[in-house]
Design goal:
homodimer, 173 residues, mainly alpha, DNA-binding
Amino acid sequence: MEGLGGLTIGGLAAEAEMRKSSVFSLFGSKQELQLAALNGAIAQFTEEVWVPVADLEPGLERLLGLCDSWLSYHQRGVLPGGCFLTTASVEFDARPGPLRDAIAACMDRWYGVLEHEIEAATSSGDLPSDLRPADIAFELNALAAAASYGFKLSDDPEVFERARRSMRRALRA
Amino acid sequence: MEGLGGLTIGGLAAEAEMRKSSVFSLFGSKQELQLAALNGAIAQFTEEVWVPVADLEPGLERLLGLCDSWLSYHQRGVLPGGCFLTTASVEFDARPGPLRDAIAACMDRWYGVLEHEIEAATSSGDLPSDLRPADIAFELNALAAAASYGFKLSDDPEVFERARRSMRRALRA
DNA sequence: GAGTTTACCGCACGATCGTACGGTATAATA
DNA sequence: TATTATACCGTACGATCGTGCGGTAAACTC
């Protein structure tokens, strides 16, 4: 398995060459472990996707760079199981609890980042002002996620080209 | 749990008010059950999404109707766990075997349907000919899937409006 | 150096799940 | 009617998983 549900204390212990009970006592519960894994994945995502473009000019330029680093992150398969947030969303969207709440909060934060950037591009005139930032953010996220699991399913890197063209189209419409 | 992995023989037996062993002997193995569930979900999807628009004019008209019935299908939450194919894709994209193959085949068939319709719209002049059908099909699918799990995660029906606007934008670019 | 914290281990329990096998009615068939 | 197939049941086994508890050795603190 993959994703947060496929994360097992025993499996993690084996990878760390420790005993199950050690790993368990280190986190206290599986749920804590899952939350920690989610935070770790988010930190890594930020490091690999956002940081490389943080120095670019806010607005359309950084947005375009972000799309590229985003797709590259997925294409390199940095972590198995594809887009962690998408996997987690699909897995927990119908299971209320702290995990679902944390995932939803992460998604909201990420949407906030995207929308903020889109608004910057709009106010500097690089994007038409009749576009709703939330629409574009939703669209970009949908494309990145679909590219991630579409690639893992088809093994065809062409999906990243498709996603890239669609993103470009969304950002100059 | 949800999706194909969350499908358990015991759980199904409870729903059917039967015994585990009965359900098991009815399918022979869990994998056969999962394949049957996949086929059932595809049949239902076809019934609820494709059939209602089958009589429309091939091309853009049917494409637009398809997007609406597609989103409506997800919004009504016809089956728990959101878009079955997307859930299954995310769940099995890294687990080689008959399940993954069947899921990939279903996706391919669905993409084929979409592309065929897009080509009809292009050749009748309702869509610009510089658009690649595979790109548009990918985009529509990404939007529908994202709307499905986005809604289950946020409980905000606005995502369907967003997805609808993005789909419309993709189809008249 | 005594006491306490930290990191890890070993073992065991209960729950869940897929799977297997033998049994028993009822229905179909010849 | 005799035979066979079908549908379902009861029970059991082995594997996996989360969890709890007592123990031990090293590290740290006073």
